[in-house]
């Protein structure tokens, strides 16, 4: 089969590799029907995730059809259409029993496209399939469903829920890329008074307005002045970091009010300074997190019910064999206007 293979920092290729096979009774193999590219994949290519070794098939977000199932798989059958979650769960370790599937000790967690081969391929092996896939109703398209593999639960759990968004809050999202936009979408479910989006690209700030931001600020302007103007000088109740750079993290800690919450969603490859000399006295809560995907069934239900409008998220569509061009478009959003790209057979 063909797959997108990581060759080291800055190197990727669409090339022939051996077909995946069932290696454990709990595995399934899926035909990949729709797949997308994540900002984390760009971090991998940038050398920010050294656990990913050359030769690894990238990708952790896919919708597919089961073509082979191990003897230990009980909830799936050949022909089932499924969402492959970005997080795999053994289901029996301490963290899985607590619902913290991202921290799985039994061989799961974030493994697809990380420590085992991923889903940016014609076929993919999905470990722990009963707990790591979701059957999809016919009413949900592949394009809508693939957003549930990572981006929607990540922004909802690590951003909105960890940040404790409440009615009437002022919420700031730093970074209006796909994760930031999904965070805006999720925050709206809790009726905040204001949602402020901060980004360097005007096109992404325009997209943020479509997703529900009522105030947008260019990063090179003065986000602190804008937030203080909205809040009577207090600062934001919740600030979400959705980029993954030292500068954006430090900006977030400057925008939060005393007693507020900073929820870090971004993937960081470099150290960021934590200004405790300013923060220690301000009762600020800072959270980090890898998504657990416990919210995926709820988000799927909201998608089916029409409560999540993801129609503006996908801006570029490619056939699977044009994944190299898709990476190029996704990696240059300022020039291409790309938010999410979806590749299909």
From TrEMBL:
InterPro entries membership: ADH-like_C (IPR013149), ADH-like_N (IPR013154), ADH_Zn_CS (IPR002328), ER (IPR020843), GroES-like_sf (IPR011032), NAD(P)-bd_dom_sf (IPR036291)
Keyword Metal-binding part of the UniProt annotation: yes
Region (Disordered) residue spans: 1-20
Database matches in Pfam families: ADH_N (PF08240), ADH_zinc_N (PF00107)
Leader sequence residues: none
Cofactor(s) needed for function: Zn(2+)
Keywords: Metal-binding, Oxidoreductase, Zinc
Enoyl reductase (ER) domain residues: 7-343
Molecular function via GO: oxidoreductase activity; zinc ion binding
PANTHER family for this protein: NADP-DEPENDENT ISOPROPANOL DEHYDROGENASE, ZINC-TYPE ALCOHOL DEHYDROGENASE-LIKE
Protein family according to the UniProt entry: Belongs to the zinc-containing alcohol dehydrogenase family.
Name recorded for this polypeptide: Alcohol dehydrogenase
